[in-house]
Amino acid sequence: MAKLTIEQLDLPGKRVFLRADLNAPIDNGAVTDDTRLRGVVPTIQYALGAGAAVVLASHLGRPKGKPTPEFSLRPVAEHLAALLALPVPLAPDCVGDQVSEQARALKPGQVLLLENLRFHKEEEANDDAFARALAGLADCYVNDAFAAAHRAHASIEAITRHLQPAAAGLLMQRELAALTRILEAPDRPLMAVLGGAKVGDKVALVENLLSRVDALVIGGGMAFTFLRALGHDIGRSLVEPDRIETARRVLESARRRGIPVVLPVDTIVADGPDSPAGRAVSVREIPPTMMGLDIGPLTVTRFAAAVKEARTIVWNGPMGVFEKPAFAAGTIELARAVAESRAFSVIGGGDTVAAVNLARVADRIGYISTAGGAFLEFLEGRTLPGVEALTEAR
Prior knowledge:
It is a single chain. The chain has 14 helices and 16 strands. By secondary structure, it is an alpha/beta fold. The strands form 4 sheets. It has a 6-stranded parallel beta sheet, sandwiched between helices. Helix 10 runs parallel beside helix 11 (329-340). The protein starts with 14 loop residues before the first strand and ends in a 6-residue tail after the last helix.
């Protein structure tokens, strides 16, 4: 069902509880990557422009249910104030009498940022009383935190029992539109490109996508479990012995469905990730004392050719240990190939987004998701609590 959106709310004079994902990296008291902050700015500006006041809420890190200075949202408040060119005062807490007074005193066009929701263990416990206290701070609810929508937490799920209507913010809408397009109405051929370290993290994703995609490209550390399933000796490369049979099952299922699975034909090997350089070898000739740490040049060409044929691409996971310059070329070249393709491309996951930024092609990607776990769970076909809790549009 379509969900109610912020544009459908009667906002003038209202206080909006806006759940955002402001979980940004912070170093020495300053935000070092403001991607998620910038993502929610349009929704804040829309609400303020419509005559509302905004009570902004988020988590930051894992403070384990108690106030921890290093996880304070103060640096986020200061950075947001600069992005919005508006004061963004930080409340001393997210619930309590003082916070309630600050929220009630808000005038249209003003913003109040609540302190870290996870300073209370009740947030992650989806506690009803805590959710009711949060709900009392506002007149309506907007969720723009798609990256946290897979979690049934108090500010995401339980709050909607006490604060209605509950609408999707502008970022949430864009995320859902892009991912729904992949699952329900993709231009074909639809190709999934999967990388990263482990097969186990993506078993459900692969199995769901096999019924939807026209081709599957597998790289990164997870490729070695598939190569092992095909009988290759992979040296000291990353492998999940308990997933080899799963990989065989995936390959057989793809074969029965007529879906090509494109795997590496060569790899960059070295003694380990800290090696200053590696060398390309065939996947049939990986030395027993070495490990594959990136896709090789022949595989880059093979993957780029596959990507060129697609009309829709969904990509999650790097092709190697791209954080190390010696093993970044495969991921960077693939990012460039995706950007140069005529396909509508959607990427998600922190490492994949970082790789696209490293390749300097982010402006040529169809949609970059701010989410990691929620991105994967949505593509796995799971119901996300944060989406399910939103009010259905009439």
